[in-house]
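Slide 14.
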Amino acid sequence: MTLIAEHTILAHPARGLVEVYDSDAFTGDDDALQRSRAQVVAGNPYHLYLHSLQPEIQVHITIRLWEGPQQPSIDSEGAIALSLESETGVLVVNQLDYGPAGDVNLPRPGVYEGYAAWTGREATAAYHRATMQRAAAEGWDGEQIASAWTQCPATENYTLNLWFVREPEPEEED
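Slide 15: predicted structure.
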């Protein structure tokens, strides 16, 4: 199947989390947030949580939109199936403490299925731990630590591969 579009957004995983949700789905989901700590990626039909093992080094969120189903890459550290409904046709990538990092326009509103895969998660967390230990031992200031984050040799990447499967569910009227 053909790749329709690919978008990459850099985000800070404040508190170890980045969210991806439909632009009308502002309400979080505590159960999904807790599941993400074990599954790496978890959500409900409108809201996903991506769980990083570190809270400070920027992560790459790549959203790929396909004409049809794709298989997870064998190069990823892990992958999980997902379904995400977007009534607006706009997905927001949100940083918990900093606000939106960016948004992605989908080809059309609807239900998208696919999978999330990740790479560089463990290596970035190991670099973060080692840097914090070194910073404490050597008395680094905030500027030195911030500089170290930009020099991380690993790239933590979360890729959402999505394809349209159907129109969104009609909203119920009260």
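Speaker note: Residues 112 and 165 are 6 Å apart (CA to CA).
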